[in-house]
Design a protein that fits this description.
By secondary structure, the chain is mainly alpha-helical. It is built from 12 helices and no strands. The longest helix is centred in the N-terminal third of the chain and has 56 residues.
């Protein structure tokens, strides 16, 4: 967001943001990984009720560090709109990582697969670092580590709420999964749920690309104080998300029974879960585009608060539907759909209120 906003008007400032973000992302990744390692015995024995997963959890902590680093690279490359470069590096990394995961699973089972995934992410970090430096040189943007203290305000206004929102999102999903696996036959139901949930990520693939393309454009237009263009681009992204997601969700629903049967006889009756997840993707993809506007308008604390409300609703509804009503994996899917619908309603009201305030402010400034 900030790289896109400053890349042409203030490249030195963009370089300082990049240097600051590199340090902040790696430090927070290491901190969270250390906490995860310390808590892994409790997570394995108590939360997951599988003490044998301790080694796997500890190895997977490496992915928290590499994931933060990859997120930083993706942010910079997206900010300078190096989409072709990002697509090539992701394709190369994906192929290489797939080989490492398959090899690791063949040699060492679950632990080997996780180690292969971590090694693949490290390879992606190294490749991203190389191409990022090449891409920044085109725009003559240096990576500056001086004046980091000048960006402490950026931590409070953007980085901290963004990080907390992400932590709430993934920890809420994880807690929902914990609720499911701690019931009788929970791990088997988790396998069914994960099979259907893969299609959630597949449905969001194209909208995610669209979101990544539109965010730097919105930021650049906002940096030029062109609110009219900001609104046009935003509405275009919103309409495009609907146009992509709704037909795909309908198609997936029609083929749900046949798709789930491909996973094996035990998955055939789980087709209602896939339908719920398909429409959950429609809601999630739409609200991701709305979240972009909160970022562009520097309203990340609002984003954090919305995610907090969503997390509470998701965990509460999962506890009711999965444990008390005994709906299992279907209950977890419905919990996701209901909580995403509530989040969509709240974030829609906030975004359009923010746009109205921004428009009124711009009008007042012109009158002055």
């Amino acid at each position: 967001k900030h790289v896109a906003e400053y890349k042409t008007t203030a490249p030195q400032r963009a370089g300082k943001v990049i240097g600051f973000s590199l340090i902040f992302s790696i430090m927070t990744g290491i901190l969270v990984a250390l906490v995860f390692i310390l808590l892994s015995p409790v997570l394995a024995s108590e939360a997951l009720a599988r003490p044998e997963l301790l080694s796997a959890l500890r190895v997977s902590s490496l992915m928290l560090v590499f994931g933060a680093w990859i997120g930083f690279h993706n942010g910079v490359l997206t900010g300078i709109e190096a989409f072709k470069t990002l697509a090539i590096t992701n394709a190369i990394s994906g192929i290489f990582s797939s080989g490492l995961i398959i090899f690791g699973a063949y040699v060492g089972g679950v632990l080997g697969a996780i180690a292969g995934m971590a090694a693949g992410m490290f390879f992606q970090c190294a490749l991203n670092s190389y191409v990022m430096k090449k891409s920044l040189a085109i725009y003559e943007i240096p990576i500056i580590f001086e004046g980091i203290k000048d960006h402490f305000r950026l931590i409070w206004n953007f980085s901290l709420p963004s990080m907390l929102a992400g932590l709430i999102h993934w920890s809420s999903i994880w807690l929902g999964n914990v609720v499911l696996v701690n019931r009788p036959n929970g791990y088997a139901e988790m396998g069914v749920y994960n099979a259907a949930y893969q299609w959630f990520s597949a449905l969001l693939f194209l909208p995610a690309i669209l979101t990544n393309v539109i965010l730097p454009v919105l930021s650049q237009e906002k940096g030029s104080d062109d609110l009219v263009s900001v609104k046009k681009t935003f509405y275009l992204g919103l309409k495009s998300s609907f146009a992509i997601l709704i037909p795909l969700a309908l198609l997936l629903s029609l083929l749900s029974s046949r798709i789930m049967s491909l996973y094996g006889p035990a998955f055939t009756d789980a087709w209602p879960i896939l339908i719920v997840i398909a429409f959950m993707a429609v809601v999630a993809g739409t609200q991701n585009m709305l979240t972009n506007m909160l970022a562009v308008m520097d309203r990340m604390w609002l984003h954090f608060m919305v995610n907090f409300i969503w997390g509470c609703l998701f965990i509460l509804s999962a506890a009711i539907l999965v444990l008390f009503l005994n709906w299992g994996a279907l209950g977890l899917a419905i919990s996701g759909l209901l909580s995403y619908l509530a989040k969509l309603l709240i974030i829609t009201l906030l975004v359009f209120r923010t746009l109205r305030i921004q428009q009124d402010t711009a009008f007042d400034m012109r009158a002055f």
